[in-house]
Structure formats: C-alpha cells, structure tokens
C-alpha cells in the first residue's frame, strides 16, 4: 500500500522543484508587475499610492508609446520576413548537400551561439564611421564614409541587418529539420506525374512544411518583439528615438526615470499585445491538428 502511494506521488515530487522555481521566477514577478502597474511606484519614495488605471491611460496618451509601437512593428516585420526567406533558401541548399553539410551547418550556426550583447558590440565597432570595417569596404568601392548608427535613416536598417545576421541560422535550422522530416513518397509521386522543380516546391514541399514554417515564424516573431540587448549595445534608442522599440521605452521609463508604475503598465500592455498575437496565430493555425490540412 505504501509503495502504491509512493508511486502515485512520485511524479509530483519530481516536478516540485521545477514548479517552485517557476512560481518564484515567473508567476510571482508577473503578479507583482500587474500590482505595481496600478500604483505610483518609485524606489525613491516610501509611499506607493494606488492610482487605478491612470498609468494605462498615460500609456495610450503618450506619443512615445505609439512611436515605439510603430518602430517595433517595422522591425519585427522586416527581420522575420528576411530571416524566413534567407533561412528557407539556406535550409534547401544544405538539404541538397551531401558531403560537407555538417561543416557548413556548423559554420552557419555560429551567430546564434553568441550572446546578443556581444553581437551588438561587434556590429557597433564594425559600423563605426571612423574605423569600422563596413566603411573600409565602402571606401574601397569608391563610396564616402557612412554614419550607420548616427544617421536617423540608417540606424534602424543597421539594427535589422544585425538581427538578421544573428537569427537567420535559427530559422534555417528549424526549416532544415522540417525538410529532413518530409517523406520521399510525395516527391516520387510528383516526379511520376511530371511536376517541375518549382511545382514540386510550391505544391509539395511548402504544404508539407507549413506547420514547421508557422512554428518558426511564431517563435521568431515573439523573440523579435522583445529585442533589447542589441539596441542597448548599438544605438541606445537613438538617434532621435528612431530605434526606440517597446522594450527600450519600458527600460527608459521604468529604470532610467525610476517610474516603475508607468514602466510596469507599459510592460503589461506589451505582454497583452504579444499574448493577443499568439492567440490570433494559434486560432488561425491549428498547430496541434496533425491529421488536419497542412
């Protein structure tokens, strides 16, 4: 009898440490975030009065919020689109390779092994208008020096380029795994029917790869939405706020100006936007319906 009880409680005992850590480092901070978003919360003030929805009203009246939302949307759409198409191309090329696939795959995956802060610092040096390698090649080709990170028209594209360089391999490896999981039977049937390479790609490969594509796009969209490290190392939200994304203004308002209540309200709004995007995506695409249409 004791052994039976022990066996039934065993899974809960195994899960307990992880659940405790989840409670301490995820659930409690989220509850605390919601709590202080309704307060005028500052670490330099003893009193933290309840202010109701005033922080949220201030968010939607703040022009910097709408500007950051626009910049975030541009950044996410640009990076995820470029990473998907380049990653798809690389995954197809690697899938066709025989010898040397492992070597090329390892080399291409190097950027995602680096911390975003290191990547941001590296690209900041390479894009320096005085001694950066980008300007060295520009001058070698006969162009004048370019202020990559101080020009309002180039700062955001420079960030997009940096993100694409680092995270395209992530998209590639997911799509490559999906390609390797496609059985050979549909391709043999398409070949017998006389389908061309482009017809096989659009009518066989893409439909069979659609679930993997959706998952890759979802993961990268959520991750790109909360970019912060690279911005901190490269532009710090400038010049003139053209790279100030939602994550950056949360830091700027909450930690730089010590307005934790307003920063928490911004974080909650950002969380709601991401969760809404996730729910719309999952409603549109049934990722768990394996037997459904691809």
From TrEMBL:
Q: Which Gene3D superfamilies match?
A: MetI-like
List, alphabetically, the SUPFAM superfamilies matched.
Answer: MalF N-terminal region-like, MetI-like
Location in the cell reads: Cell membrane
Instruction: Keyword check for Membrane, yes or no.
Output: yes
Cite a single GO BP annotation. transmembrane transport
A cellular component term, taken from the record's GO annotations:
plasma membrane
* Regions crossing the membrane: 12-34, 71-94, 106-127, 154-179, 200-219, 260-282
How is this protein situated with respect to the membrane? Multi-pass membrane protein
Q: Which PROSITE patterns match?
A: ABC_TM1
Entry-linked CDD domains: TM_PBP2
What keywords does the record list, in alphabetical order?
Cell membrane, Membrane, Transmembrane, Transmembrane helix, Transport
**Pfam families recorded for this chain?**
BPD_transp_1
Q: Does the keyword Transmembrane helix apply?
A: yes
Record-stated family: Belongs to the binding-protein-dependent transport system permease family.
The protein here is known as: ABC transporter permease
- The organism named in the record is Paenibacillus naphthalenovorans
> Mind giving the lineage of the organism this protein is from?
Bacteria, Bacillati, Bacillota, Bacilli, Bacillales
């Amino acid at each position: 009898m004791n052994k039976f009880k022990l066996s039934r409680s065993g899974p809960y005992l195994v899960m307990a440490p992880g659940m405790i850590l989840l409670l301490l480092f995820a659930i409690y901070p989220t509850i605390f975030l919601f709590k202080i978003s309704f307060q005028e919360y500052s670490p330099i003030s003893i009193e933290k009065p309840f202010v109701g929805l005033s922080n949220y009203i201030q968010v939607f009246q703040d022009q910097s919020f709408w500007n950051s939302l626009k910049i975030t949307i541009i950044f996410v759409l640009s990076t995820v689109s470029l990473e998907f198409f380049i990653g798809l191309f690389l995954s197809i090329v690697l899938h066709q390779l025989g010898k040397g696939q492992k070597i090329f795959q390892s080399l291409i995956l190097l950027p995602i092994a680096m911390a975003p802060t290191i990547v941001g610092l590296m690209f900041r040096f390479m894009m320096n208008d005085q001694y950066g390698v980008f300007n060295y090649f520009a001058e070698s080709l006969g162009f004048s020096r370019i202020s990559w990170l101080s020009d309002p028209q180039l700062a955001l594209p420079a960030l997009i380029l940096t993100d694409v360089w680092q995270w395209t391999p992530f998209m590639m490896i997911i799509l490559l795994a999906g390609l390797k999981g496609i059985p050979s039977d549909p391709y043999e049937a398409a070949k017998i029917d006389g389908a061309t390479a482009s017809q096989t790609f659009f009518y066989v490969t893409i439909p069979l790869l659609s679930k993997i594509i959706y998952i890759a796009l979802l993961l990268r969209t959520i991750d790109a939405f909360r970019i912060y490290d690279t911005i901190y190392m490269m532009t710090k939200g400038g010049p003139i706020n053209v790279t100030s994304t939602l994550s950056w203004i949360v830091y700027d308002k909450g930690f730089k100006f010590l307005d934790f209540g307003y920063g928490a309200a911004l974080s909650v709004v950002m969380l709601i936007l991401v969760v809404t995007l996730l729910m719309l995506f999952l409603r549109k695409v049934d990722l768990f319906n394996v037997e459904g249409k691809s």
